[in-house]
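Q: Structure tokens for this one, please.
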Amino acid sequence: MPYPQQTLEKRMHEAAQKYQSGSDQVIEEVYHDLMPFCLRVASRTCNRYIDEGDEEASIANFSILEAFEKYSPERGAFLSYLGRVVRNRIIDYKRREKKKTIIPISNLIKLENIDTLVDDTFFDSILEDMDRQKEIEDLRALLDGYNISFADLVKTSPGHAGSREKVRHVIEIISSDSEFSRQVLENKTLPAKVLKEQHNISTKLLDRYRKFIIAGVIIIAHDFSYLVPYVLPSGGKKDG
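A: Here is the predicted structure, written as tokens:
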């Protein structure tokens, strides 16, 4: 199961301490959590998709061991340090291969490009992409229970500014009321009658945008921070 960025960083920092205290098996315990990050770093470094069958993935494997052996808190965040190790080892590998092989000039240009220095924001952006992807996957799984697909959300997304504001207002009303939220999350239905009577929300609006509204309530209820801006203009529930 993937972990959000802050949780993953904390686990890896603790794992590095355990490894350096003599607990060799800890790498096996965290390997599957780290490898997706390493493959993303490898892909960004090479500017192409890298999977576990590629040579660069093997380099990433050895980089994990090197990072655990050499890491210290003075080097900064563990994941950024691991990312630098993976990137540097892949660049070293590409340099060696370049010396061995006659390759087209276009490829030489690509190899020079990967030699560009990067800072920690390079690795932070990779981790943020992973967190965002996890939220998308979690949302997809939750929406399956409502028989709602992402294609449905595209079709039912409010197109006009006025409609968007009305729909977002409904999402805010439901999300700020525990009983309304419970009905959506547990009963998988909108409290249409009460919304109409208490908040003057039209049945037509609720029917037309039902799937989008449900998705918005789920996003807020599960604190999908990367997806909230898609349903609320302020990036979260409004006060009042």
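A few notes: The radius of gyration is 23 Å. DSSP finds twelve helices and no strands in the chain.
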